[in-house]
Amino acid sequence: MSQSDWYGTVLVLLVFMAIIVISSVFLLPDYWYLWLIIIVGGVSLLVVWHTKNFAYLCPGCGEVFEVSTFEDFLSPNGGNKKYVKCPKCGKRAWADILKIKE
Q: Residues 8, 12, 18, CA angle at the centre, nearest 5°?
């Protein structure tokens, strides 16, 4: 991932964290269930956004592939790598995260 990709990702995460903090101040005391809905909805949107914008490079065979939203949510993430299974060679490994060009 390039430096601008990192900046974009960090910006999305900062906006999400700001929404969480601001909504917690106003909603947690009396409307905790709305705050919980915001958290679950926000995390879901972040995972869908990540799934649509990033692919993975298998270190074993060099295959570039995408994963499902469910697998993206459950797979361990190591910053610039994600532990996923390559659909071509079937090997589980820490694959490099690649930005999908638009």
A: 140
